[in-house]
Structure formats: structure tokens, C-alpha cells
Specification:
Layout: E1 6-11, H1 17-30, E2 38-42, H2 45-63, H3 69-72, H4 86-95, E3 101-104, H5 105-115, E4 127-128, H6 131-151, H7 155-169, H8 177-194, H9 215-225, H10 231-245, H11 255-266, H12 268-273, E5 275-278, E6 286-289, H13 290-332, E7 338-339, H14 341-352, H15 357-360, H16 365-373, E8 376-379, H17 387-402, E9 409-414, H18 430-437, E10 446-451, E11 453-454, H19 459-469, H20 472-478, E12 492-493, E13 503-508, H21 521-531, E14 540-544, H22 547-561, E15 565-567, E16 570-571, H23 578-591, H24 596-603, H25 608-611, H26 618-648, H27 654-671, H28 678-687, E17 690-691, E18 699-703, H29 704-707, E19 712-717, E20 733-738, E21 741-747, H30 758-783, E22 786-794, H31 807-814, E23 822-823, E24 828-834, H32 859-866, E25 871-873, H33 885-888, H34 893-907, H35 919-928, H36 936-949, H37 954-958, E26 966-977, E27 980-992, E28 995-1002, H38 1009-1034, E29 1041-1047, E30 1052-1055
Parallel strand pairs: 1-9, 1-10, 2-3, 2-8, 4-7, 8-9, 11-12, 13-22, 14-18, 14-19, 15-18, 19-22, 25-27, 28-29
Antiparallel strand pairs: 5-6, 13-24, 16-17, 20-21, 23-24, 26-27, 27-28, 29-30
Helix pairs in contact: 1-2, 2-4, 5-14, 6-8, 6-13, 7-13, 8-13, 9-10, 9-13, 14-17, 21-22, 23-24, 23-26, 23-28, 26-27, 34-36
Length: 1057
């Protein structure tokens, strides 16, 4: 095979990015590459699904000779000497579905963590939490911290928390300390982790905390040296000195101090040079020179230093607060193997860092094993990759780039012009970074390619896109420094779209007398009524900036158009309707009978007759609810009370029926975690978001971010008069980042101070440029969603020049608009191109819903013909026991399950044990890992393990038989054996040369030998399945594997033959 090229594709909107990715993937398969040797990374799970679907579809077409491979793979190199049988490739891909690496980066990182927990320093069984589980874990850690401090006799911890909280939230009004703490943690915990040990917090360059300067002396010096020209100026000076003398750093600036700083920032550089002219009051400007200029400068510098020192101290207080929380989070969550996606990224990034013990130490083969598995790397939406994510895979990609056989490859597609996720730390600059790292020379290095031909849009839409974005010099003039990375190339329509009719217009709402900022939604209504997209079979989207605005616009359009309008946004189905709110109040009252608010709410609902009735008061009902939750979980509670609701409300509408089903789904998801904590479920239900998906037969209102990757016949943009394009949103923390990570963090002072401090000013300029760049990208993404009709709606042009560059003003500047607009029916037409009546002759006018494809057999059945589904078998499911229902839901079963789990977790920390081993050291490890939290069951579990390790039975399980012996502890496994999918966890396996010992721990009670024999007989099928798994995993024969049950209560070891 000739050399494969490494390619970086910059693909403009609508140019066939996904098509190119699929073609590359199939090209590799056609060259005989292993499907499981190709790692394809997408930005979202939806994109991964679409990618995989297109692979199967194209393989199906090629296998049925619907397209010649010479045509499909034209221009790709190298080509195979002989084309493969594509039906064979299709069969191979479907048979290896479980081994394919096609998904998001987050899922790839999670898989690495699950496969190599010990190599990464994690406990066995480590798992990645869903977002709602992560939120619950954060709350658990915070609650535990507060409880720990409250019950501690060490007042130092409490003082540290209170001082940190006071410093971090000084001057901020909050509803409660708990909500303030939770808000701060959610907002800034990730920043604290990214900053390492927190040392960059409060470390603003050029700031000396011990030297605030003497503000009083500086003010007196200014009074002595500065002589205002007018009485008004003299009064202003006295007001300045009076207000500044009692100035409280970190508080709202007094008006005269703010006036002084406004005047100062305008001439700051001149002041530093010793000469400046300042307008102080009305009249001629005052000239400041020599000692007067230095006195003025000294006051400004003293005010600045006092403010920055205050902000730095608060920032350090917040770091101290985060350190306390992080220690508790580690103890309660992370040390027990419960990881968030962000934890996984940081862990793997640390494992790849130069000098890392994971990369260079005894576990250094982790990355070598990954490198040996994947020969080809494909990346979608490369511009949305963060530096942390890239640092994890960069070394693996580098191995591919350095390979001189030409049989391995790197391929990435993306578009820096669509970088709308900078707030997630996406880094479009990676495009330039990788090209610099692996420059293209002949057949070596990374070859850049550009795609700018649009398969999506009509010429009229592309004309507007080119008119707005092709003038790089014009954009730079109105948004200085914001065009770096926005490499625009003129867009052209494909030949098939050259004659496609379309229309683009910039419209403005009519300026009614007395109305300052007229709404643009009536103009949207007028357009929809004119175009009638749903009647004509046209897809239509209204794109806005934020979720709240989307909901407001959708509600108004429903009321004014009579059309089906769907808002694609997040909802909270447990709290947006009366029925589930009543169920939440019932649970709240059951958990807290003194909650009068919940009680009064229930009295006003139709459920009350079922809660309190003759012979049964509401306290008894609450008791029954608690018992129901404990015995049957929240699913059981939901089933019972759903029946009651339907009985009491027989005419309940479809909306509330849907919400009840969704409530049941939330209950099932929560029950899967094993908790019966009512408060935790209430928090879970209230916080659980759900994404509402739009429909093709409705007008869809959504944010620009949600529209990315989609296309519509008609796109309407009514939200063009928001903040300035380079506006930097107010931040509670300024986080300064460089290529190495976070360099400094500071609670943001009033922005009037930024020009007075070099580091602050530089950071503000960079942030403005980044915001301007992201605004350009967002506008580009929004405009390029349109296929046929693009309508840009703005407020009326301002009568005077606006100081800030909003999107509406930017469009007018780029389109060269001057003079009056053309009057339309319900709006003004400021600019237009194409056929305004394009929709009247649109092909969509005769479009009908596609007929369902006739498939002789279900797709699942066809797939199973090539790859029968393996039956999933768990060794623990093979136990030959019958458990009575009364025992299954008994009060003692949950503590018994907790005891068994804890004993297994404690023993997982024992690698080897002999007479020289220290119980005190082992208990310290348990404590440090967060296993011991003061629960009553812990005393029993520790005593049980202590007795076991000092018994004769421990020798077989825990004594190290030879220097080269290995111990597997709580190791999960999955494998296919004799057509069955075996999935389980080994408690302990000792491997020595050609022999294996399998030990399974049991915490069951066995009062006598007869009971013990019954237990052993019941567990024998489980142990046999474990042994078969070990035969496959170790390659040894069945007779080389010893197996035993170790009963921890009575320290009995029983061989299982």
C-alpha cells in the first residue's frame, strides 16, 4: 500500500464535512484496514449516530452496486489494487459493532478510565457519572463539609470556612449561605482544579499585597498641588477628597471617585509621562505637569492598589474555601471512583504530561497499549476541541505522524469560522498549532485542505454571506483584532444549486412614534404569514441568542400566527405542571412532616381526599409513602400515586399524562443508583432537565448553538440588537490562561480600573477580541443554516452613530447601507438580493411526506442474521437460591447489602498480607480513601475484615506465594463465551505462573455445617462461570484454576471443585 496522507480540512458550512469524514473512513476500510483500528471522534453523540448511519448507508449502496467505487473514491489516494466486496465490508462492520471506536471524546476518555483504573491510580470499579449524578455528588460533598464542620470540636475548620466564604462573597447579596456556597462551587470548582493547587488565585502580576499606598497622603498632596480653573472644579475636587477618604475597597464606587477615574483613564499614558490635559468640570481643560501630574497619578494609583488588593484577598479567600470543599469532595466522591467527565479529562491530561509517573513509571505502557490498538485517527469539529482534550490524545496522534511506514494516518475536519463554543474552552487556534507542529513537506507532515463550495444554500443566500464576511479589512476596521483565525474564502454554490431560487433580506421593524426599541417579533409574524412555510412543505427556523428569548418568541408566535411552533430548549418536566408538583409536595411532606408549605399546597390539590380521609389522617399516609419508597423505590411510589391521580382526574389531558410518564422515567433513573433518600430524589427531580426536540412540520424556535449542524429552507434571525459584538460579559472571576494553563485568577474589579493596570488591560483586550471573534462565528453559523430564504430582522437604524458595534450595525456597515429603506407591507427592506417571491414557485409547494420504505424484514432481524445477539449472563445471576419476597423487601436487607459492599471495598485495598503487615497502616488507607464515614455498619465491617486477615483462612487468599505473583482485586470483566456475553467482577484472583487462585468473598451467615454446605451448593454455578471466564482471560486450562469461597463472618474457606 502506498503512503496515506495526513490531512487537516477546513470545511465551510454546507461544504460536505460529514460526507468527507465518511468517505475517509470507508477509504480506509476499502484499503483493508481493521474497523476497530480506526478511532473516530465526534463532538456530540448525535453527530456520532449520524456518522455511523451514513457509513452503513454508503456501504449498503456500494454493496448493491448503486454507485461505482471509482466515482465515490475519486481523488483519494492511494486506491486499492482491487476493489473489495463491499457486502463483506458491511458484514465485517456489523459483526464488530461492539469493538468500533466511534463516538465523542468524552466517551473515549471514559472507556480508557474504565479499562485502566489501576494504571491511573483509581480504585477498581471507577465509573463516570452522568451530569445529574455529578450535581448530586457536589451537593453531597458540600453537605458533608458543612456537617463535618458543625459537628467538629475544632473551631479552626469552621473559622477557615467562614472566613473564606466571607472574603469570597463580600458585598454580594444572596438568599442564603447555603445557596451562595453551592452557586460559588458550581461556578468555580473547575477553575480551581485547572489551576493546580490554587496558587494562581489572587496573584495578579505587578501587585504587591503589602503595599497599598497611602491614599490619604496622596489626596492631601493633590489638594495642595492641583488648582481647578473654576468654582465648579474646586467643588468637584473637595467632593473627590471627601468621598475617597472613606472609600471602601470592593464596594460601589462613589460618583465623584468614578468621575475622577473616568477622566484619568482617558489620559493615563500621558499622566505617566508627566504631562496631560484633563477636563475637570465645565470650561477649559486643566493642564497637569510635573508635581501636579505626579500627585494626580498618585491618587489614581492608590485607589487602584486598594481595590486590587481587596479583590486579591477575596480571591484567596475563595481559594481557601475551594480547598476545603475539594478535600471533602475527594474523600466522599473521587476517591471512591465516582468521576465527572471533567475529572476524567484532567486525570488523563495529567497522565500524559511530561514527567508524569503514570506516563513514565511502571504503568507507562498504558499509552503504548492504546497506540498499538489504533492506527488511524479521525476528528470531527476539530475547532471545538479544547486544549485539555487535545493534550490527552496529542501523543497518540504524534506516534501516527512520526510513523514512516505510511500505513497509519491522521485526518481532521472542522471550521474555525464556526467556533461558537469558546465558553467551553474550545480552542480554534489548534488548527494553526498542528500545522506548525507537523508542517507539510512533499508527502510528509499535515496537508491543509479547504472546502468552500456549498451543497446547501442557494446563490442568493451565499451572496449575502460573501457580502458580509469576505471584506476582512472592513471587519478588522470595526472589530479590531477579532479576525485572527476567521479565514473566510468566497462561498460558491454547487452546479446543481446554481439555478436554485432564493432570497436574502435585511429588514427592520417599523419605528412607531413613542416606541424606543420596537419588538422584532411582529415582523417575524408578518413574514411567516406571508411565506406560509408549513403549508408549502418548507422547513423553517427562527434563531435567537438565548433560551429565555426562545421561549418568549415561541409563545408570541403561537398566539399571533396560529401555526405549530416548537421551542427547542431545556425544560424541567417535574416542576412545570400541577400534577407532578403535587407528587413532589407529597414526598416533601413525607420526609418533613413539619413542612406547612407542602401541607397547605396538598390541601389545595385534587389529591387531598386520597391523602386524608375518614379513618386515616395525612400523617399515616405520609408514613405509608415512606414505607413504599423504602420497599419499592420511587418507581413504586410513582406507580401507586399515578393510579390515584387517574382515578381522581379521569379527564386528565395528554400533557399531564406525558409528564407523569416522564416523572416515572426520572424515578427509574434515580432508583438505578440504589438510593432511597427522599431529599436526594426531590433535588434530582427538580433539577433534571429534558431537551425538547422540534418537528419538521412545525416552525422551530431555537438558539444558534442548537441549530449548528442543521439546515432549513427558511431561516429568520430576529435577535440582532443585543450586546456589542465584542462585549465581555460581567464575570465574577477573571481567569487568565496561556498555553501552559491558568496563569492568574482575580475577582473582577469594576472595569473602569482595567486601563490603569497593564495585566488587567491586556486581559480585557484579549477577552474583547475573543468575544468579537465568537460573535462573528455565531453570526456566520446562523446565516449559513439557510437553504433558500434568509431573513435578517433588526430594530430601526439609529438616528445617531452608536458607540458599540452590534450585529445589526455590523451588517449595515458590511453591506454598505446608507439612506432610506424600501417600505414593505409590515417592515422596511434595507437590503435584499434574489427573488422575493421565491417560495411561490418553490418545489416545496408540492412536497409531500415521503412514503415509508417497504422493508421485507425488520432491520434488527437482518443484522442478527449476520451477528446473533449474545445473551448477557452475570455470574451473580447464576446463584441457585430462592429469595422470599418478605426477605427481599425486609428492613434488614438494605443494611446487609451495605455491609457486603463495604467489606468488599475494604478488602480491595489489601494487595498482600502476612505477619509483617500493619493493620494501622491499612486502616489509614481506608480512612484516606473515604471508605469510613462514621456509619454504624462500618464498625461491623472493619471488625469482620480485621478478624479475617488474622485468621488461618487468610493465608490462601492474601499471602504472596512468589515474588512474581499478581493480585486482581475487584476487577470487572466482559467477554463472549459460547454465544453468551459474560459480565461480572472478580473479588480476588491470585496469578502465579501457570496457576490461578480464585477467591470469592461472601458475608452470608452460616450457622452450622449444613447451612454452609447449602450456601456452597447455591454459589457453585456462579463460581463455575467465573472459572470459565478465567480460562478465556488467562489462557490456562480449567484444572489449573483453584477456586474457593471465603465466608467472612466465620472465617471459613471452602474449596469449590
Amino acid at each position: 500500500m502506498n503512503r496515506l496522507r495526513h490531512i487537516l480540512v477546513s470545511a465551510s458550512a454546507g461544504s460536505g464535512k460529514t460526507y468527507q469524514l465518511v468517505r475517509r473512513h470507508l477509504h480506509l476500510l476499502a484499503l483493508g484496514q481493521r474497523p476497530e483500528g480506526i478511532a473516530a471522534m465526534t463532538f456530540t453523540r448525535k453527530a456520532a449516530g449520524e456518522f455511523f448511519q451514513r457509513i452503513l448507508q454508503r456501504l449498503s449502496v456500494l454493496s448493491q452496486h448503486g454507485e461505482k467505487p471509482e466515482q465515490y473514491f475519486a481523488g483519494m489516494a492511494p486506491l486499492p489494487e482491487q476493489w473489495p466486496e463491499f457486502v463483506v465490508l458491511l458484514r465485517r462492520v456489523t459483526q464488530r459493532l461492539h469493538r468500533l471506536r466511534l463516538g465523542t471524546m468524552d466517551s473515549f476518555f471514559a472507556n480508557i478510565t474504565a479499562c485502566f483504573p489501576l494504571e491511573l491510580g483509581l480504585p477498581l470499579g471507577a465509573s463516570v457519572m452522568a451530569e445529574n449524578e455529578s450535581a448530586q455528588a457536589r451537593r453531597e460533598a458540600l453537605d458533608a463539609l458543612l456537617e463535618r464542620i458543625h459537628s467538629s470540636h475544632d473551631d479552626h475548620a469552621g473559622r477557615a470556612l467562614l472566613e473564606g466564604f466571607k472574603q469570597a462573597t463580600f458585598g454580594i447579596e444572596e438568599r442564603s449561605a447555603a445557596s451562595s456556597l453551592e452557586s460559588w462551587i458550581n461556578d468555580h470548582h473547575a477553575t480551581w482544579l485547572d489551576s493546580g493547587d490554587g496558587s494562581p488565585w489572587g496573584m495578579l502580576p505587578g501587585l504587591e499585597l503589602a503595599d497599598a499606598g497611602n491614599l490619604t497622603a496622596a489626596l492631601n498632596d493633590l489638594r495642595d498641588r492641583f488648582v481647578p480653573r473654576t468654582d465648579e472644579g474646586a467643588r468637584f475636587l473637595e467632593e473627590l477628597i471627601s468621598q475617597a477618604s472613606v472609600l471602601e475597597p470592593g464596594a460601589t464606587l462613589p460618583p465623584r471617585v468614578k468621575y475622577f477615574l473616568d477622566k484619568t483613564t482617558a489620559v493615563w499614558e500621558d499622566l505617566k509621562s508627566g504631562r496631560a490635559e484633563i477636563g475637570w468640570g465645565r470650561g477649559k481643560k486643566s493642564e497637569l505637569t510635573g508635581q501636579t501630574a505626579r500627585a494626580w497619578y498618585g491618587v489614581a494609583e492608590a485607589i487602584l492598589n486598594h481595590e486590587l488588593i481587596c479583590r486579591a484577598q477575596r480571591t484567596r479567600g475563595m481559594a481557601a474555601l475551594m480547598a476545603l470543599y475539594e478535600a471533602e469532595y475527594v474523600r466522599r466522591v473521587r476517591s471512591r471512583g465516582r468521576l465527572s467527565f471533567a475529572d476524567v479529562q484532567r486525570l488523563l491530561a495529567a497522565a500524559t504530561a511530561d514527567g508524569s509517573e503514570w506516563a513514565d513509571g511502571e504503568s507507562g505502557d498504558l499509552w503504548f497499549r492504546l497506540d498499538g490498538r489504533y492506527d488511524h485517527w479521525l476528528f470531527d469539529e476539530f475547532q471545538d476541541t479544547s486544549r485539555v482534550q487535545w493534550n490527552v490524545v496529542r501523543g497518540l496522534v504524534d506516534e501516527v505522524m512520526q510513523d514512516d511506514t505510511g500505513r497509519r494516518s491522521f485526518y481532521a475536519v472542522g471550521d474555525p469560522k464556526q467556533s461558537i463554543y469558546l465558553w467551553r474552552q474550545a480552542e480554534p487556534g489548534l488548527f494553526d498549532d498542528v500545522l506548525r507542529e507537523w508542517p507539510h513537506q512533499d508527502q510528509d507532515g499535515l496537508e491543509p485542505q479547504t472546502l468552500s463550495q456549498s451543497f446547501r444554500s442557494a446563490p442568493a443566500v451565499l451572496d449575502a454571506v460573501n457580502a458580509v464576511f469576505a471584506n476582512t479589512a472592513g471587519i478588522e476596521a470595526v472589530l479590531p483584532g477579532c479576525t485572527a483565525g476567521f479565514a473566510f474564502k468566497k462561498h460558491v454554490a454547487t452546479e446543481r444549486n446554481q439555478q436554485l431560487s432564493g432570497y436574502t433580506a435585511l429588514l427592520s421593524a417599523p419605528n412607531e412614534e413613542g416606541q424606543r426599541n420596537p419588538s422584532t417579533t411582529p415582523t417575524v409574524t408578518a413574514l411567516l404569514n406571508e411565506i406560509r412555510p408549513l403549508e408549502r412543505g418548507l422547513t423553517c427556523a427562527v434563531l435567537v441568542r438565548g433560551n429565555k428569548n426562545a421561549n418568549d418568541v415561541a409563545e408570541e408566535l403561537r398566539a399571533t400566527t396560529g401555526m405549530e411552533v416548537v421551542c427547542e430548549s431545556q425544560i424541567h418536566p417535574a416542576t412545570d405542571n400541577a400534577v407532578t408538583l403535587a407528587l413532589l409536595s407529597l414526598l416533601q411532606l413525607a420526609a418533613h412532616p413539619g413542612d406547612t408549605l407542602a401541607l397547605e399546597h396538598l390541601k389545595m390539590t385534587p389529591l387531598w381526599p386520597q391523602i386524608e380521609f375518614p379513618g386515616q389522617g395525612w400523617p399515616l399516609t405520609c408514613h405509608q409513602v415512606r414505607e413504599s419508597v423504602f420497599e419499592r423505590g420511587f418507581v413504586g411510589f410513582t406507580e401507586v400515586w399515578t393510579r390515584h391521580v387517574r382515578t381522581l382526574l379521569p379527564e386528565m389531558d395528554a400533557f399531564h399524562e406525558l409528564r407523569l410518564r416522564q416523572f416515572g422515567e426520572m424515578a427509574a433513573e434515580f432508583d438505578a443508583g440504589g438510593s432511597r433518600d427522599i431529599d436526594a430524589f426531590l433535588q434530582h427531580a427538580r433539577d433534571m432537565p429534558m431537551q425538547v426536540r422540534g418537528a419538521a412540520n412545525a416552525v422551530q424556535v431555537m438558539t444558534v448553538h442548537k441549530a449548528k449542524g442543521l439546515e432549513f429552507d427558511v431561516v429568520i434571525l430576529p435577535d440582532l440588537n443585543g450586546d456589542a459584538m465584542d462585549h465581555v460579559r460581567r464575570r465574577s472571576l477573571i481567569v487568565n490562561r496561556d498555553a501552559q494553563g491558568i496563569s492568574w485568577v482575580l475577582q473582577e474589579p469594576p472595569r473602569i480600573f482595567a486601563p490603569l493596570h497593564e495585566a488587567l488591560n491586556e486581559e480585557m483586550e484579549v477577552s474583547k477580541q475573543r468575544s468579537g471573534f465568537e460573535s462573528l462565528c455565531r453570526l456566520y453559523v446562523a446565516m449559513t443554516r439557510a437553504k433558500r430564504g434568509l431573513y435578517l430582522i433588526a430594530e430601526p437604524p439609529p438616528k445617531t452613530k452608536e458607540p458599540s458595534m452590534r450585529e445589526a450595525q455590523f451588517l449595515r456597515r458590511m453591506l454598505g447601507l446608507e439612506g432610506d429603506a424600501e417600505a414593505g407591507a409590515s417592515y422596511l427592506i434595507e437590503w435584499q438580493t434574489g427573488d422575493a417571491q421565491w417560495f411561490a414557485t418553490s418545489l416545496g409547494a408540492t412536497r409531500r411526506p415521503p412514503e415509508a420504505a417497504v422493508v421485507p424484514r425488520p432491520l434488527g432481524e437482518l443484522l442478527r442474521e449476520f451477528q446473533p445477539l449474545a445473551k448477557r449472563v452475570t455470574p451473580s445471576g447464576e446463584e441457585d437460591f430462592q429469595v422470599k419476597g418478605s426477605m427481599l423487601f425486609s428492613a434488614g436487607r438494605e443494611p446487609g447489602r451495605r455491609l457486603g459492599n463495604l467489606v468488599h471495598e475494604l478488602l480491595a485495598h489489601v494487595e498482600w498480607w502476612d505477619a509483617t503487615s500493619s493493620m494501622a497502616a491499612l486502616e489509614s488507607r481506608w480512612q484516606a480513601s473515604g471508605l469510613l464515614r462514621g456509619e454504624a455498619v462500618e464498625t461491623t465491617a472493619v471488625a469482620m475484615v480485621r478478624g479475617l486477615l488474622h485468621s488461618a483462612a487468610a493465608r490462601f487468599a492474601f499471602a504472596k506465594p512468589a515474588a512474581e505473583a499478581q493480585a486482581w482485586r475487584e476487577r470487572p470483566f466482559d467477554l463472549i463465551h459460547q454465544g453468551s456475553w459474560i459480565s461480572g467482577v472478580f473479588d480476588r484472583v491470585v496469578i502465579q505462573g501457570n496457576s490461578v487462585r480464585l477467591i470469592d468473598f461472601k458475608t452470608d451467615e452460616a450457622a452450622d455445617d449444613e447451612a454452609l454446605a447449602e450456601k456452597v451448593a447455591g454459589y457453585r454455578p456462579q463460581i463455575m462461570l467465573y472459572r470459565q471466564a478465567l480460562v478465556r482471560l488467562t489462557g490456562l486450562k480449567l484444572e489449573q484454576i483453584e477456586s474457593a469461597l471465603l465466608f467472612t463472618r466465620n472465617c471459613r474457606l471452602v474449596d469449590v471443585k
